[in-house]
């Protein structure tokens, strides 16, 4: 059984000094493979997010003012 364990050992590649350089080379290659959205799609998505965020901020602000006034009326 011990002989089987020693036979199954996997050799790890020796650590080279340029591991960081290889990482960035591979990163650059992966970034080139990405299919980026068109400028128009990005603009539409950004506008949509900003509009919904503005609506949400307005709703939360109105609820805050409403609850503040309600609390003032209750505890007056």
From TrEMBL:
InterPro entries: SecE_bac, SecE_sf, Translocase_SecE/Sec61-g. GO terms for molecular function: protein transmembrane transporter activity. GO terms for biological process: intracellular protein transmembrane transport; protein secretion; protein targeting; protein transport by the Sec complex. GO terms for cellular component: plasma membrane. It is found in: Cell membrane; Membrane. It comes from the Bacteria. Keywords: Cell membrane, Membrane, Protein transport, Translocation, Transmembrane, Transmembrane helix, Transport. It is a single-pass membrane protein. The chain crosses the membrane at residues 45-67. Component of the Sec protein translocase complex. Heterotrimer consisting of SecY, SecE and SecG subunits. The heterotrimers can form oligomers, although 1 heterotrimer is thought to be able to translocate proteins. Interacts with the ribosome. Interacts with SecDF, and other proteins may be involved. Interacts with SecA. Belongs to the SecE/SEC61-gamma family. Essential subunit of the Sec protein translocation channel SecYEG. Clamps together the 2 halves of SecY. May contact the channel plug during translocation. This is Protein translocase subunit SecE. It comes from Clostridium magnum DSM 2767.
């Amino acid at each position: 059984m011990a002989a089987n364990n020693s036979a199954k050992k996997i050799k790890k590649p020796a650590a080279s000094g340029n591991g960081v350089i290889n990482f960035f080379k591979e990163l650059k290659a992966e970034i080139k493979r990405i299919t980026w959205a068109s400028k128009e799609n990005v603009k539409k998505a950004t506008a949509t997010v900003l509009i919904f965020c503005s609506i949400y901020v307005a709703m939360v602000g109105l609820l805050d003012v409403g609850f503040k006034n309600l609390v003032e009326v209750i505890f007056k």
